[in-house]
Amino acid sequence: MSKYYVTTPIYYVNDKPHIGHAYTTIAADVLARYYRQKLGPENVWFLTGTDEHGVKIAQAAEKFEKKPQEYADDISASFQFAWDQLNISNNDFIRTTEKRHEENVEFFVSKLKEAIGPDGQPVIYKGNYEGLYCYGCEAYKTESDLVDGKCLDHPNIEPAYLKEENWFFRLSVFTDHLKEIIERGDFIVAPESRKNEVLRFIEDGLDDIAISRANVDWGVKVPFDKDQTVYVWVDALINYVSALGYKGNDDKFKTFWPANVQLLAKDILKFHAIIWPAMLLANGLELPQVCFAHGYFTIDGQKMSKTIGNVIDPNQLVDEFGTDAARYLILAQYPFGHDGDIKADDFVIKYNADLANGIGNLVSRVLGMTEKYFEGQVPKMKYSADFDVKAFWAQLDRGYSELKLYENLKAIINLVSWCDNYIDQTKPWELSKSDNDKLQQVLYNLIELIRHLALAIYPYLPETAEKINIKLNINETINSIKFDKSREIGGMKSGVKIEKGEGLFARK
């Protein structure tokens, strides 16, 4: 692998960011930071952004007595602020109201107009849509999609009945091709449960879909039919190529497309695993390598809801715990890809256990003992502990390639626990009175493992990792250290003066 392109969905600006948005975005940031370490920052591109068109946005703007663009500007800014607060390192932030995106949408849709499908027919055609539409998720619905006549995700919004002339995309003719490439693994839908879900949906039969709307002002006009507006989901999906300069075949597009990983929540899986790849196939573009859909959050067993008042604002977590801790607490809840429940009251418990009493306490203990017994100088020894550093890194590498971000965090905390047990077993405070050579060996082993700990936590806790680096008197930033060289055993130089300094995480 020579390049890495990771995307989040672009978030709909009908409301401000919540913990679910942050979950996807932090996960993408972790991957981007890891691959920048591995491949070099110039070979990684990380995209996020906001989806700003559609009837729902126009209605929300009207409710707040604002113009749609003004409303979109405000909400988009709140997402950018939240990502700054969480130290998200995206290379670009795409907005669907930007001219660069709208021009690419027009170009992409025009190419679809010229495209011929597997059946030898044009892939888009003019037709009549008559049926249901949920404005909550801006999606066409069939009766089978509804429960008691209501959308599962928006039970308080009555589906609208639409009857209008639209442009349609022949999704049906891509049924066999999509099934084949997903089963063969040419286009990976993960985790396995989501792959099976998509295959079942395909096997049930794919219908052609409307890709334009009549009588919708807030959106991108269909370039060959100005009475029609590009369907908001088609508009949104194109962001992944528009941000790279697809229309002009820019160097960035040639370098980074296709995406290596597209992260999303499972509620928008159909759009990303069926409609998006079919559109790309129609226009002769390569498909993303992996479409990964994670599960839903519930809070204390209940779905997030403004009415209940259990929506968690990521900014509040940053205010209470700090940036790195908020990142950790959001990602460390349950395996990535699963549904899971967050116990809001457990944030403090996990913060103290894993960060304050875990990583923070370990670093303070080891560097404090080094100052006490050796005036802060790293002992002149070679690494000899039983902890298998090579196996540790192999486990993390495998975890990143398989998107096991939660399991990687557990491996890191296991390293901390191993070090704590090693201290308890070797009792440096007793060795200081009886065996200076062994004391030097024990502390060198621990300092070397803390050096590896800093490298390992960097994608998750970048500020903390750099603070540890400074304490260890390593003058290079983690991103500037060569990836393979940094992982070598014994990389901590003897004789270096370290400094315990302030604690990393204050107990709550």
Automatic annotation (TrEMBL):
InterPro entries with a match to the protein in the record: Anticodon_Met, Met-tRNA_synth, Met-tRNA_synth_2, Methionyl/Leucyl_tRNA_Synth, MetRS_core, Rossmann-like_a/b/a_fold, tRNAsynth_Ia_anticodon-bd
Signal sequence region: none
SUPFAM superfamilies the record matches: Anticodon-binding domain of a subclass of class I aminoacyl-tRNA synthetases, Nucleotidylyl transferase
Keywords per UniProt: Aminoacyl-tRNA synthetase, ATP-binding, Ligase, Nucleotide-binding, Protein biosynthesis
Domain Methionyl/Leucyl tRNA synthetase, chain residue ranges per copy: 145-367
Gene Ontology terms for molecular function: ATP binding; methionine-tRNA ligase activity
Positions of the Methionyl-tRNA synthetase anticodon-binding domain: 416-506
Origin: domain of life: Bacteria
EC id: 6.1.1.10
Keyword hit for S-adenosyl-L-methionine: no
Any GO BP annotation: methionyl-tRNA aminoacylation
Function description: Is required not only for elongation of protein synthesis but also for the initiation of all mRNA translation through initiator tRNA(fMet) aminoacylation.
NCBIfam families: metG (TIGR00398), PRK12267.1 (NF008900)
Family, as annotated: Belongs to the class-I aminoacyl-tRNA synthetase family.
Name the UniProt record assigns to this protein: Methionine--tRNA ligase
Source species of the chain: Candidatus Falkowbacteria bacterium CG10_big_fil_rev_8_21_14_0_10_39_11
Organism lineage string: Bacteria, Candidatus Falkowiibacteriota
